């Protein structure tokens, strides 16, 4: 198949593009490089630098069988400060893409949704049918896209699958031995922050000078076994594999929604311990005040996708940290 991957210069999109190429598909990446990096586009993919709003229609008109849609704004904090930006990019941009798909007769889409649609869950593990009450414009804009896909499936016969990611981590070694990994700016996520501090602790002077020398653990008074928040981490390689299965499951007139997680939670302190073990470094850390909007526990039930598509996470937290650390060390030279 010839596939359009929007946001394919970003973290998850680039790994999915790499796996699609490895599976023998042709891939066109469309990315505006607002947060992605051109050097993240896997070798072998055609690359168009542009926006989904202005440029997707041209790419689709050249002959595309299905779309994997990652292009989005994805920082929770930024979305609270600039909600209009998130509605405009995430919902407005996707609407433009869906209309371009309708006009060009491209009938299948796999969408990168998020656990943030659930907000503060009433129970864990979270199932797809549980109430979706997002607590940020980011989560709300992604939920709005899920709902829009549902409408397009009902009204226009679109074949759509939304994949709701829990905490994605790790890195993927693509063809040519290149690591595709997280490179957010600013970096807010736990594992990359811990590993940046590990790099500083390993004596890298450039990193030590950047000031990231001690991990702040946001809150240790949550109702969890060790008082720190618990999250469900999923390796980006496992996550990407689910997209290929979802593509195969696209059915005209159906919108499916699947959670993607490991089904097991790890506390922030447990993550830090694994990072210390993998790197062999004594990564400094201290407790800091809670971060606004952090639920105590977020763990997914992925039973639904396991049942329907036979998917389940195979890689554990240790391999996520080990791969992320290899990518960090490779980037640092
Ligand atoms: N966290 C932390 N220190 C950091 C970054 C994150 O203590 O420097 C905590 C955060 O408060 C949350 C967990 O790590 O409890 C996971 O946060 P992350 O931003 O990685 O993912 P989220 O669950 O917010 O999507």
Topology:
Layout: E1 2-6, H1 11-22, E2 26-31, E3 46-49, H2 52-61, E4 66-69, H3 76-81, H4 83-104, E5 108-114, H5 137-156, E6 159-165, E7 167-169, E8 172-174, E9 178-180, H6 190-201, H7 205-209, E10 215-218, E11 230-231, E12 233-235, H8 236-249, E13 255-260, E14 266-267, H9 268-279, E15 285-288, E16 297-298, H10 303-309, H11 317-332
Parallel strand pairs: 1-2, 1-4, 2-3, 4-5, 5-6, 6-13, 7-12, 10-15, 11-16
Antiparallel strand pairs: 8-9, 11-14
Helix pairs in contact: 1-8, 2-4, 4-5, 6-9, 6-11, 9-11
Bound molecules: uridine-5'-diphosphate.
Uridine-5'-diphosphate (UDP) is lined by residues 167, 188-190, 193, 215-218, 229, 231, 268, 291, 294.
Report on the structure:
The chain is of the alpha/beta class and 333 residues long. The protein has two domains: 2-170 and 233-260, Rossmann fold; 172-231 and 264-332, UDP-galactose 4-epimerase, domain 1 (Alpha-Beta Complex). 41% of the residues lie in helices and 20% in strands. The chain has eleven helices and 16 strands. It has helices spanning 11-22, 52-61, 76-81, 83-104, 137-156, 190-201, 205-209, 236-249, 268-279, 303-309, 317-332; strands at residues 2-6, 26-31, 46-49, 66-69, 108-114, 159-165, 167-169, 172-174, 178-180, 215-218, 230-231, 233-235, 255-260, 266-267, 285-288, 297-298. Strands 3-2-1-4-5-6-13 form a seven-stranded parallel sheet, with helices on both faces. The two termini are 37 Å apart. The protein binds uridine-5'-diphosphate. Uridine-5'-diphosphate (UDP) is lined by residues 167, 188-190, 193, 215-218, 229, 231, 268, 291, 294.
């Amino acid at each position: 198949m010839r596939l359009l991957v929007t946001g394919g210069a970003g973290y998850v999109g680039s790994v999915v593009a790499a796996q699609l190429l490895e599976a023998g598909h042709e891939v066109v990446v469309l990315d505006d490089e607002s947060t992605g990096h051109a050097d993240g586009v896997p070798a072998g993919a055609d690359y168009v630098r542009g926006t989904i709003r202005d440029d997707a229609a041209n790419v689709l008109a050249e002959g595309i069988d299905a779309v994997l849609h990652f292009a989005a704004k994805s920082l929770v904090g930024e979305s609270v400060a600039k909600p209009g930006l998130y509605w405009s990019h995430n919902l407005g941009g996707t609407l433009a893409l869906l209309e371009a798909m309708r006009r060009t007769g491209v009938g299948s889409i796999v969408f990168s949704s998020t656990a943030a649609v659930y907000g503060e869950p009433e129970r864990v593990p979270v199932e797809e049918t549980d109430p979706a009450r997002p607590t940020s414009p980011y989560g709300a804009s992604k939920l709005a896209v899920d709902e829009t896909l549902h409408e397009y499936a009902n009204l226009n016969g679109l074949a759509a699958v939304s994949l709701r990611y829990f905490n994605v981590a790790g890195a993927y070694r693509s063809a040519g031995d290149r690591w595709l990994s997280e490179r957010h700016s600013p970096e807010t996520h736990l594992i990359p922050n811990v590993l940046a501090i590990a790099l500083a602790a390993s004596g890298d002077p450039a990193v030590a000078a950047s000031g990231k020398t001690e991990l702040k653990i946001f809150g240790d008074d949550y109702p969890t076994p060790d008082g720190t928040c618990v999250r469900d981490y999923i390796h980006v390689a496992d996550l990407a594999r689910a997209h290929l299965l979802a593509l195969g499951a696209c059915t005209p007139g159906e919108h499916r929604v699947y959670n993607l997680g490991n089904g097991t939670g790890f506390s922030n302190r447990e993550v830090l311990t694994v990072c210390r073990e993998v790197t062999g470094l004594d990564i400094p850390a201290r407790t800091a005040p809670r971060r606004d909007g952090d639920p105590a526990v977020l763990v997914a039930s992925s039973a639904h996708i396991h049942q329907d598509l036979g998917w389940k996470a195979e890689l554990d937290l240790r391999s996520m940290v080990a791969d992320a650390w290899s990518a960090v060390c490779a980037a640092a030279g």
